[in-house]
Design goal:
The complex is a heterodimer of chains A (244) and B (318). Chain A is an all-alpha fold. Chain A has helices spanning 2-17, 20-39, 51-54, 57-69, 71-79, 81-87, 92-112, 115-124, 129-155, 160-176, 180-186, 192-200, 203-211, 217-241. Classes of the chains: A mainly alpha (244), B alpha/beta (318). At the A-B interface, helix 1 and helix 6 of A face helix 2 and helix 3 of B.
Chain lengths: 244, 318
């Protein structure tokens, strides 16, 4: 546990040692607000909630989270620092967890910095703050899901651009599988159970469920399992490919 | 003590390390020699637990690297090839990170940090990001990282690569200072380094261990061992001198060059030629500029051993 903390602190500090942190946070905040106000019609709807803000998070994450995760292991492999890390008295699991949690915490910081929009909506009306909190939790979990996928795929290559593109594609698949567009392809011929199964794989379905204000155990288990599975794959991929 | 038993690493059809066995005791500075791609780095990566062997085992002070990786890694300091580090970190931040991972705390931690910073002259770059440092400084940061916890076992992959002659000298002094109670394994392709710091040398090529001896014993394998080289003034008659030397009973062969005004006499097996040659030179009053006894040329031995690995291996084991 102590080693996870050491790796975590080093990794988190390294985000802020480069312009990456600033660029990421600024772009995240600008895009999150732009989507909420222009595309989501935050004012025009005349409702005191943050639905137009959270609705666009999956799309925002689709491109921004892979940009965050692509460097996680690809950079270590490219620079050779992975050899240093793996020969220090730190286990593979500790390294994978420490680095992943640092990236997740960083995404959490960016998300937390959107608090002015919460203040705004409270200033303008009387929103259901419990629902907003739940949506924040859902958004954070979804970011964690995207990041776990990205971390694993970043370990598979030493090229960050390839890591980015593959992560976007895989995350897109995980998002899209919950959309009517995809589900309608199956409707009418596939049994409802199959359609439900496909929909239940999607980030979008679970995120929507949580952002309505209900934190269901099933949604938590979904994100927990998904993250654990991708991180286990991450460790496996690293063990196989670390020296290539 | 490091024990390496029948260590083998295969990548598909390629055998990078082929059944290597040896042991290293405290106080030994082992030089790992071989052409590029011989398997030096791969062997070191397996000793330090970065790569899992295809077969065979490595144990460091009784801890098997595969089954007890943490115990083994705790005992070792490792400078990987190219001295990788986290480039965006400052030297200070990086060394503090290593100190934390190495469980150094309190006054011991400060003492060790001060010690490596002073030994490797890093004080003036402490606040600089590692990415902005010159190659020499990067290498020294890598060495500092490996030495920080004062490990019993040091594995250094090309520790002086990229250093200027002064820095090379400092690093060699550093290694010599630490050698007494540690196990040190360094890989290099600079042969003078072996003479300067190692008391044992292993030559590998194509993943196979071809020679394991002291640098002096390896030099003795050279045909230059105990040969005598003479240099002459401009007006010397090399051809005539050569005939005289060839006539000596102890001399097996002579090589000479009119252009360089140089002549080398090689002794017959187990004979010495120095007394006879120097007596002859005095008697004939040759216009000598220089006369010296060769101790053997490591680079020549290295070339002979590694240029035809398969045949030499058989001879070596015989």
């Amino acid at each position: 546990m102590r080693n996870v903390g050491i790796v975590f602190r080093r990794e988190l500090a390294s985000y802020f040692a480069t312009p990456l942190a600033l660029v990421f946070i600024v772009i995240f905040l600008v895009l999150a607000s732009a989507f909420a106000f222009y595309l989501g019609g935050f004012y025009e709807r005349g409702q005191a909630d943050l639905a137009p803000f959270f609705n666009y998070h999956p799309w925002l994450y689709l491109f921004l989270i892979p940009a965050l995760s692509m460097r996680l292991w690809a950079e270590e492999r490219k620079s050779g620092s992975i050899e240093l890390l793996m020969t220090l008295p730190v286990t593979l699991t500790q390294a994978v967890l420490g680095k992943y949690l640092a990236a997740w915490a960083f995404a959490g910081i960016a998300l937390a910095l959107t608090f002015p929009i919460w203040i705004t909506v409270n200033f303008l009306g009387h929103p259901d703050n419990g629902a907003i909190l739940a949506a924040y939790v859902g958004s954070f979990l979804m970011a964690g899901g995207f990041l776990a996928i990205g971390a694993c795929l970043s370990a598979a290559t030493r090229n960050q651009v390839i890591a980015f593109i593959i992560t976007v594609v895989v995350c897109f698949g995980f998002l899209l599988s919950g959309f009517p567009l995809v589900l309608s392809l199956f409707e009418g011929w596939a049994p409802q159970a199959v359609i439900d199964a496909i929909a239940s794989l999607s980030f979008y379905t679970h995120f929507q469920a949580i952002s309505k204000g209900v934190i269901d155990l099933r949604d938590l288990i979904y994100f927990g399992t998904l993250i654990a599975a991708w991180l286990a794959a991450n460790a496996l991929v690293l063990d196989m490919k670390k020296a290539d | 003590m490091i024990e390496i038993n029948h260590l083998t690493k295969r990548y598909g059809d390629l055998t990078a390390v082929d059944d290597i066995s040896f042991a290293v005791q405290p106080g030994q500075v082992l030089g790992f020699l071989g052409p590029n791609g011989a398997g030096k780095s791969t062997t070191m990566k397996m000793i330090t637990g970065f790569l899992a062997p295809t077969s065979g085992s490595v144990s460091v002070c009784g801890h098997d690297v595969v089954s007890e990786p943490l115990a083994a890694k705790t005992l070792m300091g490792y400078l990987p090839e190219g001295a990788p580090a986290y480039g965006e970190m400052t030297v200070q931040g990086f060394l503090h990170f290593i100190a934390e991972v190495r469980r150094l705390a309190g006054s011991a931690r400060q003492r060790r940090l001060d010690d490596v910073i002073q030994r490797l002259a890093l004080r003036e770059v402490l606040a600089q990001p590692i990415d902005t440092l010159s190659k020499g400084y990067k290498r020294r940061v890598g060495l500092a990282q490996a030495l920080l916890h004062d490990p019993k076992v040091l594995i250094l992959d090309e520790p002086t690569d990229g250093l200027d002659p002064n820095q090379k000298h400092e690093v060699r002094t550093l290694i010599n200072d630490m050698a007494a109670d540690k196990i040190i394994v360094i890989s290099t392709h600079i042969l003078e380094e072996v003479d300067a710091v190692c008391n044992r040398a292993i030559i590998i090529a194509d993943g196979r261990l071809l020679a394991d001896d002291t640098p002096q014993a390896l030099e003795a394998r050279s045909r230059y061992h105990n040969a005598v080289t003479l240099r002459f003034e401009k007006h010397a008659e090399i051809a005539g001198i050569r005939r005289h030397v060839e006539a000596l009973d102890e001399v097996a062969a002579v090589e000479s060059s009119d252009k360089e005004l140089r002549l080398t006499a090689f002794p017959k097996q187990g004979r010495v030629v120095l007394p006879a040659v120097s007596a002859l030179a005095a008697r004939e009053a040759w216009p000598l500029k220089e006369l010296h006894l060769e101790s053997g040329r490591l680079d020549e031995v290295f070339r002979t051993i590694t240029s035809n690995p398969r045949r030499t291996a058989e001879v070596g084991h015989a």
